[in-house]
Amino acid sequence: MEVAEEIEIAIVGGGICGLATALALHRKGLRSVVLERSESLRATGAGITIRTNGWRALDELGVASKLRQTAMPLQGARDVWLNSGKQREIPLGGGETRCLKRMDLITALAESLPRGTIRLGCQALSVRLDSSTSSPSLHLQNGSSIKAKVLIGCDGTNSVVADFLDLKPSKLFSLSEVRGFTMYPSGHNFGNQFVQVMGDKCTLGRIPIHNKLVYWFVTQKVMYGRGGLEVPKDPELIRQLTLEAIKDFPSEMIDMISKSDTESLSNTRLRYRSPWDILVRNFRKGSVTVAGDAMHAMGPFLGQGGSASIEDSIVIARCLAQKLTENYDKKSRARHIMMTKVEEALDKYVKERRMRLVLLSTQTYLAGLLQQDSGLMVRFVCIILMTTLFNDMTRHTRYDCGCL
Questions:
Q1: How far apart are the C-alpha atoms of 324 and 303, rounded to whole Å?
Q2: I need a labelling partner for 354 at 20 to 30 A (CA). Which of 4, 103, 250, 285 fits?
């Protein structure tokens, strides 16, 4: 029988959250291994908006300065209603908001990690607890297995680690979102403002990354019947269907999508974990926990999914480092004492993150209900709740997850 490899801290998933968690642990002197199922690092979704709270966390990781050179700061945002032409300035919350290429963020995090931290082509199939040591054991597709003292699932909405924790699967909004880039070699004239145009059946958002590159998204209501639940994956088909959906939009926006980079195009059904699940679920079993989308998948309506994941990485690294260096003498090296400290650290992490994530997920959930085909009564209740609970619409951007 093959002997399982032993690792101190194993992180499942080499996306933004997994890499940020590994880097945060590295900054605290804790070594980890990131297990990524793909054969190369990849980033779906083209662009990612980082708000003030996210930049604060990236500063802690030591990668913010480099990333700021790749994206201009946004100075404002505006909603436009297609039918009436009505416009409304919307606050960004002060501070700093920029839109990054996801791949730039992935690359910056990966390049800051020690060599050998990331293992590609390692797909996790299942997790179980070792009966003799109570350590988590991770079984991989290639037939090998890994024993870890700490296991952190950063493996997205279809998380193997979340399944082990008996978390309910994330749910689907009746919305899909197409995302892509358009390059303007001679420069665009859109300034540094986020513009969102709302039509009857879809919403188009445009965010400049720098003076030649624009990130855009089109959010559409999912049409049931006649194969409407199928989300196309072919880039050219995605483009043609998107152009059909926005045929009544301004010509500059139609031109933007016509000239988009085909390789950047993606179409995704929007998912979420309900706020009440985040409030009551147990996010730790033994020395196993989750972070990022595996813990709190949320719609893109606040631009906080990525930033919240980076916050997770700061908090979990800080909690682990505090407990593992607490009175760390020779006597405390006994395995059962060490595992107790790990569990205490993970409990502290979950407790610190829970209410922040409940509030974020509630606000995004209500925003999602308002965008999809909800009944008049549901819309009325959503508006009342948004007004009551989130009268300061940008408060979430001023959150501080603290220092590493």
A1: 34
A2: 103
Contact 327, 304 (CB under 8 A): no
Question: 227's torsion region: left (phi>0), alpha (psi -120 to 50) or beta?
Answer: left
Backbone angles phi, psi at 230, to 5 degrees: -75, 130
Please give the DSSP secondary-structure letter assigned to residue 128.
E
- Rounded CA separation 385/379 (Å): 10
Count of beta carbons in the 10 Å neighbourhood of residue 129: 16
Question: How remote is the C-alpha of 48 from its chain's centroid?
Answer: 9
Query: In this structure, what token pair is assigned to residue 227?
Result: 């194969």
Tens-digit pLDDT string for the chain (404 aa): 567 889 999 999 999 999 999 999 999 999 999 999 999 987 777 899 999 999 999 999 999 999 999 999 999 999 999 999 899 998 888 889 999 999 999 999 999 999 999 999 999 999 998 777 778 999 999 889 999 999 999 999 999 999 999 999 999 999 999 999 999 999 999 999 999 999 988 999 999 999 999 999 999 988 654 444 567 789 999 999 999 999 999 999 999 999 999 999 999 999 999 999 999 999 999 999 999 999 999 999 999 999 999 999 999 999 999 988 765 454 445 666 788 899 999 999 999 999 999 999 999 999 999 988 778 899 999 999 999 999 998 999 999 999 99
Find, among 17, 26, 109, the residue nearest to 67 by Cα. Answer: 109
pTM for this entry: 0.94
